[in-house]
Amino acid sequence: MTDHPCPCGSGLAYRQCCGPLHDGAPAPTAVALMRSRFCAFALGDADYLRASWHPDTRPAELTLDDTLTWRRLQIVDTEAGGEDDTDGVVEFRAQYVHGGTRHILHERSRFVRVKGQWRYLDGQISE
Q1: Tens of pLDDT along 39-52?
Q2: CATH 3.10.450.50: does it fit domain 14-126?
Q3: CB 3.0 to 4.6 Å from 8: which of 4, 35, 56, 113, for a disulfide?
């Protein structure tokens, strides 16, 4: 997987994009954390997803649906979430396939820094 394109769609190789974050490197921005979370969903990495969640909203357990195939991430909009910010919003659309049918998850996610690390706080799903 290390030389393959990153599932987040950045155009970079996994080892240059989300791989280091999955190995413990801090995300520099809210968008970087969002991309790494999409990649973790695509790769079935529930441990990373839980670790990237804000401690106040993190689920006690996380079971991923292995019948979903995550295909594509589109960043729609961002508010703050930069290297010098303490919070930010990332709006995205994530395409996935379930039961042979294509679906889109459209969400505005909120991110905050906890002890200097970006964490996913929560999100509002759009229909």
Answers
A1: 999 999 999 999 99
A2: yes
A3: 35
